[in-house]
Design brief:
CATH class: Alpha Beta
Shape: globular
Strand order of the largest sheet: 1-5-4-2-3
CATH architecture: 3-Layer(aba) Sandwich
Helix content: 25-40%
Number of strands: 5
Strand content: 15-25%
Largest sheet: 5 strands, parallel
């Protein structure tokens, strides 16, 4: 499985990569990387059709543990998935912007 640092993830995101946040909805609502799509890990495999296969998918959670496992799942399904080391905690600690509030729509 591929991994990237918060700095690498921020650069990839600016270049079109998407974030999939696999934390539970309450965790996501408390704070997430801007634009991250919330698909909790327990629902990920039933929502694969909502994830683009045309660009890298940056998988993020609180610390990098859940996202590591879910990146492996996505890679096995043919996605170009990358685990974000340190997760949202590292994103916040790096001083990058954070959005709050619940996701809208479908699986989230």
């Amino acid at each position: 499985m591929r991994e990237m640092t918060i700095d690498q993830a921020a650069a990839a995101f600016e270049n079109g990569a998407s974030f999939i946040d696999v934390r539970e909805t309450g965790e996501y609502a408390a704070g997430h990387a801007p634009g991250a799509v919330n698909i909790p890990m327990g629902r990920l495999t039933s929502h694969l059709d909502e994830i683009s296969r045309d660009e890298p998918v940056l998988v993020i959670c609180a610390s990098g543990n859940r996202s590591s496992a879910m990146a492996d799942v996505l890679v096995a399904q043919g996605f170009d998935a990358v685990n974000v080391i340190g997760g949202t905690s590292a994103w916040v600690e790096s001083g990058r912007p954070v959005q709050t509030g619940a996701a809208t729509g479908g699986a989230r």
